[in-house]
Amino acid sequence: MAETLKCDVAVIGAGTAGLAAERAARANGASTLLIDPQYAGTTCATVGCMPSKLLIAASHAAHAARSTDMFGITVSDVAIDGSAVLQRVRDERDRFARLTREGIEDIPADIRLTGKARFLAPDRLALDDGRVIEARSIVIATGSSPFIPDQFAGLGQRLLTNESIFELEDLPDRLAVVGSGAIGLELAQAMARLDVDVTVFDHGEQLGGIRCPKVHDALKAIIEGDLTLQLGVELEVKSADDRVTLAWNGESPGQADFDHVLVATGRPPNLESLNLADSGLELDDDGVPVHDRNTMQCGDSSIFLAGDLANDLPLLHEASQDGAIAGRNAVAFPASTQAERFTPFSIIFTSPAVARIGKSEEDGVITGTADFSDQGRARVEGVNEGVLTLYAAAPDGRLIGADLCTPASEHLAHMLAWAIQQGQTATQLLEMPFYHPTIEEGLKQALRTICSATPLDLPQDQDLGVPSGA
Question: What is the largest CA-CA distance in the chain?
């Protein structure tokens, strides 16, 4: 007879969201069981945030070494050792992953179960070793995996995803990137700045989900300075022997050979092995359990979602909050607490980085734009490119969102996300100190535009002029 284990809260998946859920449940007095096939570490540490940023950091170093002439400094013979670049990526990634695994090992051993889980009933799970778990509540946090369209499935070792690209022994000569979302853009530009000949393909016309046309145009011009873009095209794999030959249609049809194809066409949630048919849950059109994002609860059931599987905002800080909410509410079931969610906020770590915050122009009536091509501090640093657009609501000029691709945008984006989450207005931000000369001064142009469009009062005890070079 199969062994039956009992607990208050069972958590399926030991990634960022699952770990947060187990931690929250145990901290709130629940008995827990954590289930994972490998305990290899989080997606962020192993194949996501950290290895990609390591590659991007190398590309920044290469680009900086080539960009010194404007300062009267000549750096000659910039050579890129591709194998050394990738070895450092792996070495540092392995350190991050090891530290993550060591953190997991701090969880009591009798709580950590190795295996895959599937539903037998809304409160019962079966492990692939035959054991059965009976739980008062269940949190599903099984993450996501790369989507491979059928036309690329037969490429063998020529096919790359974000889960395999960092295992390359050396940088390729020519790389095709399919998909212009966050993963595609980040890795494509990094590879291009490391002397790889890169072409990005997408059947759509929009890069990175940017909503403002001015910001999108700025991003597109920057990206095209590093690589080739083929947008609005359909691809055909012509051959895949010692290289991959791709053909495309569109305004500029063509055909080219590539050493590898990086497929970055999204990461759908891992659902297949869960046997959700026996969970009793209502599923949406993508097969994801219908849930309340403010409680992470699926309907009125004792089942909760967290992380990428929820298919809401697949970002680490969101996954961490998902897990904390789900774990706490799983313990409290059938009671439930509505959480205050973060302002939606994402960053694509291109150079300069792209950020998308909160709501868009469609949700407000006022916009303010700042062009950084002649912004003082940006010119000093030789990074004067990019655009920022703020969205505000009438009649008070309360900030509701932003799109930006500017110097120091990851830092500006945090400032703006905090302001938006706190419900601040354009006037209130202008009442704050802006040091000179800084990139932050570039916000003033957009904030003043919002104030003048409403109209809103500008701070009367401040100079309304523009300091030299600001």
Answer: 81
Instruction: Select from 426, 384, 390 the least CA-distant residue to 406.
Output: 384
Give tens-digit pLDDT for 335-389. Answer: 989 999 999 999 999 999 999 999 988 877 789 999 999 999 999 999 999 999 9
Q: For the sheet with 398-405, list strands across it.
A: 345-348, 354-358, 398-405, 387-393, 366-371
Peptide bond into 334 cis (omega under 30): yes
pLDDT tens, residue by residue, 8-51: 999 999 999 999 999 999 999 999 999 999 999 999 999 999 99
Q: Count other C-beta atoms under 10 Å from residue 123's C-beta.
A: 18
387 phi, psi to nearest 5 deg: -140, 150
Q: Measured in whole angstroms, how far is the alpha carbon of residue 155 from the centre of its chain?
A: 26
**Strands 159-160 and 235-240: what pairing?**
unpaired
CA 13-54-265 angle, 5° bins: 60
Number of H helices, E strands in the chain: 11, 20
Q: Is 439 helix (H, G, I), strand (E, B) or coil?
A: helix
**Cβ(202)–Cβ(180) below 8 Å:** yes
Phi, psi of 65 (to 5 degrees): -65, -30
Contact (Cβ atoms closer than 8 angstroms) between residue 42 and residue 20: no
Supply the DSSP symbol for 111: T
Identity (one letter) of the amino acid at 398? R
CB neighbourhood size of 108 (10 A): 10
Top-confidence residue, 121 or 453? 121
Hey, what amino acid is at 356?
R
The 10 Å Cβ neighbour count of residue 252 is 9
Tell me the three-class secondary structure of 208-274, residue by residue.
CCCCCHHHHHHHHHHHHCCCEEEECCCEEEEEECCCEEEEECCCCCEEEEECEEEECCCCCECCHHH
